[in-house]
Amino acid sequence: AMVRKVMDLERKNNKEMRRRGKEFKDSA
Question: Compositional bias (Basic and acidic residues) spans (predicted)?
């Protein structure tokens, strides 16, 4: 269960990072 939770967190973080990166490119 722990591993699944961690993987879920990683996936969420990846989505957030990608979105932030997109915003970064747009603002740059």
Answer: 1-16
